[in-house]
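dumping this here so i dont lose it
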């Protein structure tokens, strides 16, 4: 077993289509609200050259690149294609693992079309596939045993009505996570859990229901049995670092800043 694994953590890429906005697909649906947000922040939101540089820097200095969701902006097919081209470029030099965010399942129909697993399935090959549940956003949890670490990718992406950006792990996936953590190959390694929505949230319940992880408490209860571990998340677009004490030790909980910008937006 290797003694070290260098993980580069990126999040909230919000990749846009290189062909511009597709009006036909946007009319009278939720994407109009998304596009209004985009116009408001144009130029601060997504710069392909900057993101490509960040990805190649990560690929050059890390053993594993993890991206914690909101990889696309409006779940458009061309955004997925563009994002996959960028991530495939990085994947030539480093292993890549991704989890979906609320922007990657922007509409229930996208969820049904399973665009996320279709485009990013090559970044979600589990070493313990028997533990995965067949969720619309893909097979999760996805477990990768890499040297001293067990990387555990979770999906918190569920379709939501306009202006609601919250996420949920769900009881089915939580039960699978418990099984994964108890697996001997995981238990002897340091778990590195990937999730888009924040597992820690000091805000009032109403705010959590609007754009947080609605079952964060249940997730923390499962993780509280760990003596050590790392939880990497995104969604908040700012860097967060917290240490959460558990019964037998502590967890490091870290959010990455939005990779292509510092725009402080949650939805
Ligand atoms: Fe998000």
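and the seq i came up w/
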């Amino acid at each position: 077993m290797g003694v070290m694994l260098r993980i580069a953590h990126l999040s909230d890429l919000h990749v846009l289509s290189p062909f511009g906005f597709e009006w036909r697909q946007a009319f009278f649906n939720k994407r109009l609200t998304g596009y209004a947000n985009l116009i408001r922040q144009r130029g601060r939101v997504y710069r392909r050259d900057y993101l490509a540089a960040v990805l190649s820097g990560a690929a050059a200095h890390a053993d594993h690149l993890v991206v914690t969701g909101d990889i696309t902006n409006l779940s458009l097919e061309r955004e997925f294609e563009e994002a996959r081209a960028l991530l495939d470029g990085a994947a030539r030099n480093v292993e890549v693992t991704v989890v979906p965010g609320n922007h990657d399942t922007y509409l229930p129909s996208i969820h049904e079309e399973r665009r996320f697993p279709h485009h990013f399935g090559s970044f979600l090959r589990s070493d313990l596939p028997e533990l995965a549940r067949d969720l619309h956003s893909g097979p999760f949890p996805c477990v990768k045993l890499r040297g001293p670490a067990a990387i555990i990718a979770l999906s918190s992406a569920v379709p939501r009505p306009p202006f609601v950006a919250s996420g949920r792990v769900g009881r089915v996936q939580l039960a699978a996570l418990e099984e994964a953590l108890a697996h001997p190959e995981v238990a002897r390694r340091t778990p590195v859990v990937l999730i888009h929505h924040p597992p820690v949230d000091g805000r009032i319940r109403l705010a959590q229901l609007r754009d947080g992880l609605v079952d964060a408490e249940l997730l923390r209860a499962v993780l509280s049995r760990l003596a050590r571990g790392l939880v990497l998340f995104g969604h908040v677009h700012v860097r967060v670092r917290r240490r959460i004490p558990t019964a037998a030790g502590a967890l490091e909980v870290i959010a990455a800043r939005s990779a292509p910008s510092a725009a402080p937006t949650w939805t």
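The pocket of fe (ii) ion is lined by residues 70, 101-103, 165, 196, 235 (CB under 6 Å).
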